[in-house]
Known about the structure:
Bound molecules: adenosine-5'-triphosphate, magnesium ion
Radius of gyration: 20 Å
Helix content: 25-40%
Mean pLDDT: 92
Shape: globular
Number of strands: 12
CATH topology of the largest domain: Rossmann fold
Amino acid sequence: MEALLEVRRLKVGYNVEGGTLWAVDDVSFSVDKGEIVGIVGESGCGKTTLGLSFLRLLPPGSKLEGELLFDGRDIVKLSEEEIRALRGKEIAMVFQDPMTSLNPVLKIKEHFLETIRTHLALSEEEALKMASEVLGSVGIPPQKLEAYPFELSGGQRQRVMIALALVLKPKLIVADEPTTSLDVVVQAGVLDLIRRLREEFGLTIVLITHDLGVVAQVADRVMVMYAGKVVEIAFTEEFFSAPLHPYSKALLFSVPNLDLEDFDLHSLEGSPPDLLNPPKGCRFYPRCFEAMDICSFKEPEVFRISKSRFVRCWKYYG
Ligand SMILES: Nc1ncnc2c1ncn2[C@@H]1O[C@H](COP(=O)(O)OP(=O)(O)OP(=O)(O)O)[C@@H](O)[C@H]1O
Ligand SMILES: [Mg+2]
């Protein structure tokens, strides 16, 4: 498999009172062409920050270190002009909250016209034809181009957001919690759609979610983040049949109806650490049921368990 995105030792830091808050801290992974990789973890662990860094949509003053190789080019090093040309055109993002990312005073068609004409010199008619086609492929009738965002249901808005991300046929889509605000039935529809679009458009998708059920349904691989760090990477199947990191096990414990009787699962107590003052040693140590002495003072490395499997935990040392 050929990698479309290769993230190497990536660090993303926000400038905050008291210093730099490293929301993504030494993250390495890759996404193959045509693959769906699910990124999971509790609130505040750095998922959205990681996604935004692929488009360099970070607030002024943020720090971005390491490498982000997209189709051979390092996004970290691109000029502002180059990154603007790439945004939406080659990498598109479906944002966490469709109600705030669609402008309430603009009709749906205005959103499409803006997105399309930022990159392509097309007439309004040509651009709207493109928009109608892509709306069709997400199951929204073209008449909705004339609607305002509030006139659509939550599920329709989410489909519009996906269509907006798709309209320029990007190579990579970063979907941040694309189904979180939706009820279960609508959510299933959107997940189906994501799977179908991957086939149809040969899309590569990074799917950010705190919901492991979503990952189980659509992702080929799972990457678990905790406090800015990657703690486990695995194929979805092997992950759900045998989670390795104690944090992964705790996350799985919170998913109803999973048959994981063979594992020593514990519910997750406490909360993630303050990223301005992370604990010495393993960041999960204060909440870990399987912690050893070393975990309190030495940060675990990422251990490679098999060709496809990585885990940042001293239990798997040696
Ligand atoms: N613009 C910002 N300025 C300063 N700190 C920020 C900013 N955005 C996020 N953070 C901090 O960075 C850390 C990671 O946040 P991020 O939004 O990436 O997490 P997340 O995993 O997407 O969480 P959620 O599941 O709630 O969406 C958090 O500690 C958060 O408070
Ligand atoms: Mg987020």
